[in-house]
Amino acid sequence: MAAEGEYESILCVKPDVNVYRIPPRASNRAYRAADWKLDAPDWSGRMRITAKGKVAYIKLEDKISGELFAQAPVKEYPGIAVETVSDSSRYFVLRIQDDNDHYTQHRGENQLTC
């Protein structure tokens, strides 16, 4: 992880992103955005990608208050934190990590291009 004295750099901000609840995988088949309820996002807000040391963080935040909804630390790419979907280049899956380093449910969102 990042050392105590390192500063955080903002790499990208997307003001409008959506998060969708992703159904569990029944097999090793890749995720598909067509399987999600794209007309009914479970959360909307902004996304900030930051870096501290050698770790990037994809942060999902409230548009107004900046309150953190979820974050995905990206220690390496490709890796387990960000996964593409098989039927779209606009959507992807994030592996969300809580403050205790536990990974929780995968989420999807759109408009990653920075």
From TrEMBL:
A single BP term in Gene Ontology: endocytosis
Keyword Cell membrane: yes
Localization per Swiss-Prot or TrEMBL: Cell membrane; Cytoplasmic vesicle, Clathrin-coated vesicle membrane
Main localization category: membrane
GO CC annotations, alphabetized: clathrin vesicle coat; plasma membrane
Keyword Cell membrane: yes
Domain of life: Eukaryota
Domain NECAP PHear: from-to ranges: 7-101
CDD domains assigned: PHear_NECAP (cd13228)
Keywords assigned by UniProt, alphabetized: Cell membrane, Cytoplasmic vesicle, Membrane, Phosphoprotein, Protein transport, Repeat, Transport
Signal peptide extent: none
SUPFAM superfamilies: PH domain-like
PANTHER family: ADAPTIN EAR-BINDING COAT-ASSOCIATED PROTEIN 1, ATP-BINDING CASSETTE ABC TRANSPORTER-RELATED
Protein task: Involved in endocytosis.
Family: Belongs to the NECAP family.
Name this polypeptide is given: Adaptin ear-binding coat-associated protein 1
Species of provenance: Amphilophus citrinellus
